[in-house]
Amino acid sequence: MSGMLERDAELLWHPYSSLTEPSPVRLVRGASGVRLHLDDGDGGSVEAIDAMASWWCMIHGYRNPVLDAAVKRQVDDFSHVMFGGLTHEPAIRLAERLVEISPDPLRHVFFCDSGSVSVEVAIKLALQYQVARGNNGRTRMLTVRGGYHGDTFAPMSVCDPVNGMHSLFTGALKEQVFGPQPPAGFDRPDDDPEFLAWAASVSALAERHASEIAGIIVEPILQGAGGMYPYSPACLRLLRELADRHGFLLILDEIATGFGRTGTLFASEHAGIDPDILCVGKALTGGYLSLAATLCTTDVAHAVSNGPGGALMHGPTFMANPLACSAALASIDLLLSQDWAGRVAQISAGLSAGLAPAASLPGVKDVRVIGAVGVVQLGGPVDLPRMTEAALRRGVWVRPFRDLVYTMPPYVCTDEDIATIAAAITGAVEEVG
Questions:
Q1: Is the per-residue pLDDT at 44 higher than 90?
Q2: Where, per the database record, does this protein carry N6-(pyridoxal phosphate)lysine (predicted)?
């Protein structure tokens, strides 16, 4: 392991980091259960609970025997084949499973190789759908501020243009239609004055730009990388109504919220509405391999298939990779074979209790919990290196950003693990401020 970090610094460009002045990185020697085994610099290792579930995807933990076995079995058959002109059982079975568990109108599945690409595909679907319906002028998307949908070009264009991560690309991106961020608070009622003002503003925007808009795209219930920001299900119901009224397609980006993270299998269930297009990724494979999917209704699929071109114009090389599909099948089956909802509720209760003391600390603006997501929001930017190190000394790995110190832990964390995570975050915030 000697010299690895020096070689890393010379060769590798890490995410959201400068190559010349990089953020510190730590060498992983192994991982098991919910713990990372990090190199201690002296030839040994230290353990830390992964409070991030490796950017929210490793819901069953590391070296899960069920997922390990599924991938090993598939390797013995074949690890990859192109999906153009060929198919295979893992892809067919996974598509059946996704249609079975997703909102009822969704009947067709397009596999992608990352969450960002699934959003690209969803936007293409919306644009091709409108062309097929004779609405050639409908080339823009309606969304809300505060959102995040990925780092490739079409997803960047529907991320928050001011407070997001992509303001450097202003002018190079498609100009979309942005409504105000929904008022904060999952429990905010639909007769609340702030909600009514927001609804009036978004409704007027949709009316004004109706001839230009192909679809609405949002993260349901919880905006993720844009700020870990929960909002009321009433907002989703309003967006569904606007889509129906004006002939837009409703795209729900459940890449971060799908597979139980907010307390329901899909976050849209909180609102009792169904999308026309659904994007899933991250936890889809239990974190084992990169895979995402874009699901759509029969109306959307047939309109696009019978429109100009006669096809959805997209085809990633690694779409429907058999190893990834096998891991996804095993992950979904494992999740649904357990009382996942009860476990998420326990995690939620543990985070609520454990993070509550942070609310009274100097410099803390807000503490919030929804499902298996816990957030401490500061009054200013986080000192990333110091905050990370302070949490590590308490046995927990976190990756703060902007003004947020947060956790989205694996579902297999024990109550003791959750208490340790909450205490580490609270202690690190108290120490670093």
A1: no
A2: 282
Please give the CATH topology (third level) of the domain spanning 23-63+340-432.
Aspartate Aminotransferase, domain 1 (3.90.1150)
For 288-321, what is each residue's pLDDT tens digit? 999 999 999 999 999 999 999 889 989 999 999 9
To the question of whether residue 116 is assigned a binding role by annotation, the answer is yes
Q: Which of 113, 253, 274, 417 is catalytic?
A: 253
**Parallel, antiparallel, or unpaired for β 213-218 and 140-144?**
parallel
How far is the C-alpha of 417 from the C-alpha of 394, rounded, in Å?
Answer: 12
Choose the catalytic residue: 16, 76, 104, 339. 16
Are the C-beta atoms of residues 216 and 248 closer than 8 Å to each other? yes
- Of the listed 129, 148, 288, 406, which one is catalytic? 148
Model pTM greater than 0.90?
Answer: yes
399 is in an annotated binding site: yes
pLDDT at 169: 83
148 annotated active-site: yes
The pLDDT score that the predictor gives to residue 162 is 77
DSSP string of 9-71, one letter each residue:
HHH---TT--SSSPPP---EEEEEBTEEEEE-SSS-EEEEEETTHHHHT-TT-BT-HHHHHHH
Residue 186 to residues 72, 195, 234, 235, 262: CA-CA distances in angstroms? Answer: 41, 11, 9, 10, 11
Given a cut of 60, is residue 1 above it in pLDDT?
Answer: no
CA–CA gap between residue 381 and residue 42 (Å, rounded): 32
Averaged pLDDT for residues 332-358: 98
Architecture of 66-337 per CATH?
A: 3-Layer(aba) Sandwich (3.40)
> What are the residue boundaries of the structural domains of the chain, listed by start?
23-63+340-432, 66-337
How many Å apart are CA 160 and CA 147, to the nearest integer? 5
